[in-house]
Amino acid sequence: MTIDELKAQVDSFSLYDSVRDAVRVSSTMYDSEVYDIIAAAIDDMLTKGVSPLWMGEDIDALPALVKQAVVVYAKANFGFDMDNDEAKRFLAAYESIVCTLLNSEHNAVYDG
Hints:
It is built from 7 helices and no strands. By secondary structure, it is mostly helical.
């Protein structure tokens, strides 16, 4: 498989599907929470100073690093803390990804 084929396969997954899979939710009963956690992750990144240019205009066409940040944020924050022994580890991973985005030369001039 080439890099382009792999990228096309990854890009075919919606962010919603990726987050749902990551937090192991199969029921649509939790859809509003899944959408809320996606919005919270994006808002958190923007609040911390990640350029909106990283986000683009299509939530399902986010750069892979931003998608990964959203997924890891969801893994850290979805559900109750008492049910998630790994929350602190995922939160640290999320903060590391955000730091990478902030320190990237693309943060101010990302052009896709």
